[in-house]
Amino acid sequence: MFETFDFNKDGYIDFMEYVAALSLVLKGKVEQKLRWYFKLYDVDGNGCIDRDELLTIIRAIRAINPCSDSTMSAEEFTDTVFSRIDVNGDGELSLEEFMEGVQKDQMLLDTLTRSLDLTSIVRRLQNGEQDQEGAGGGAAEAAG
Ligand SMILES: [Ca+2]
Ligand SMILES: [Ca+2]
Ligand SMILES: [Ca+2]
């Protein structure tokens, strides 16, 4: 089943492929999307997203998707998320807090959705990143 997500067929699912796969899978309901996001952000899988985890993922996403037009730094965005949806203020986001908070907050929902909408990256992966092929065709044989 993983093969589907291994776009460049190197036998591994790297982070970018994982995210790309998510964005393909996630054409469905918001709630389902958020569950996937939560899993993605909960790096150590303990059922809560802490500040470090959120920050790590946001940075990683920004690194591969720099065109996300946010004016906030990753730190600022993380702070914003926690101040808005960490309802009980324990510094961790439970699945409940995350699901409810994000669904109630259009700005966060937009930002999360947009940052993980990696359609262009998916396309690039599926095309096998042909950049490196470079000048393959013709033109070079002009020796006399
Ligand atoms: Ca791969
Ligand atoms: Ca965690
Ligand atoms: Ca909390």
Strand composition percent: under 5%
Q: Can you tell me the CATH class?
A: Mainly Alpha
> How would you describe the oligomerization state of the chains in this entry?
single chain
Count of spatially separate domains: 1
The number of helical elements comes to 7
**Number of DSSP-assigned strands:** 2
The major sheet is characterized as:
2 strands, antiparallel
> Rg to the nearest angstrom?
19 Å
What is the helical fraction, as a range of percent?
A: 40-55%
- In the predicted model, the low-confidence regions spanning at least 5 consecutive residues are 133-140
Briefly note the CATH topology name. Answer: Recoverin, domain 1
N-to-C SSE series? HHEHHEHHH
Short description:
The chain has 144 residues and is mainly alpha-helical. It has helices at 15-25, 30-41, 51-64, 74-85, 95-104, 106-115, 119-126; strands at residues 48-50, 92-94.
Protein model, in words:
This protein is mainly alpha-helical and 144 residues long. It has one domain: EF-hand (Recoverin, domain 1, Orthogonal Bundle), CATH 1.10.238.10. It is 53% helix and 4% strand. The protein is built from 7 helices and 2 strands. α2 (30-41) packs across α5 (95-104). The site of one calcium ion (CA) has 7 residues, from β2. One calcium ion is lined by residues 42-44, 46, 48-50, 53.
